[in-house]
Design a protein that fits this description.
The protein has about 240 residues and is α/β, with parallel strands linked by helices. The chain contains 8 helices and 11 strands.
Length: about 240
């Protein structure tokens, strides 16, 4: 089970602040949402996607099991004037969650293909964000929450007879650092493949970019799929389109 740390919360927030990732993802979801809808963001984490979706719908209930990230989201929502974002401490996979919404968002959360029927018991529509097959993470082990990739979700939905729309997206979501020591600490934090410090340093030699203000940046293109289900007959698409930000 993924656990946030003070360092991982800070790193993610800093990356999100300088990235258009969540805005691009919300824009891709917009055609599948309605301004009158109440939406749940399951496993919302720090809630940057919840905040990006909030202007598109009536309300976003941001669900997570981590009290600290929800408190962080509540403060960020208040600062942004997003009164329709409602953080809620809840384990939606416990079997004891029975609320229903107009739509649920599952961004790198749960198994939206295998457990499609369970997700649909909570909403009329599911918008799932999953990594693409064989897509590399920014650091080994960083894709801890994504239990399924796009190929397995599509296969499971097809086997269940659920019509779906799928869109592939390539969006930049790299990591800024104050200095090289912080970059090394980042790689060490997420590295589950037991690379040596020398190997991590060699990677930084190859990929780390110096910015005009003296800070550093580790580029990373997030290769994801937005999979929406169910959709009316004739609107489903198994031919991916590409979006770049």
């Amino acid at each position: 089970m993924w656990t946030w740390t003070p360092e991982s919360r800070r790193w993610y927030a800093e990356a999100a602040a300088m990235s258009g990732y969540h805005a691009a993802l919300a824009a891709a979801m917009a055609p599948w949402l309605s301004p009158s809808w109440d939406v749940a963001d399951m496993g919302c984490g720090l809630g940057f996607l919840s905040l990006a979706v909030a202007p598109l719908v009536r309300s976003v209930t941001a669900l997570d099991t981590d009290r600290d990230v929800l408190e962080s989201l509540a403060a960020r929502a208040a600062e942004a004037g997003a009164g329709n974002v409602r953080p809620k401490l809840c384990d939606v996979l416990s079997g004891n969650f029975h609320r229903r919404f107009d739509a649920v968002i599952c961004s790198f959360f749960g198994r939206p293909g295998r457990d499609a029927a369970d997700f649909l018991s909570h909403a009329g529509r599911v918008l799932a964000v999953v990594r693409r097959h064989s897509s590399p993470s920014i650091a080994p082990g960083a894709d801890h929450r994504g239990g399924e990739d796009d190929a397995s979700v599509r296969e499971a939905l097809s086997a269940s007879g659920i019509a779906f729309f799928a869109r592939d997206m390539d969006i930049e979501f790299g990591q800024p650092f104050a200095d090289r020591d912080e970059a090394m600490a980042f790689l060490a934090h997420y590295d589950r493949s037991r690379r040596t410090p020398e190997e991590r340093s060699a990677r930084l030699d190859r990929e780390l970019v110096s910015r005009p203000d003296g800070s550093l940046y580790l580029p990373h293109t997030k290769k994801i799929s937005l999979i929406v289900y169910p959709v009316p007959a004739g609107e489903e698409s198994r031919t991916s389109s590409r979006c770049r930000s």
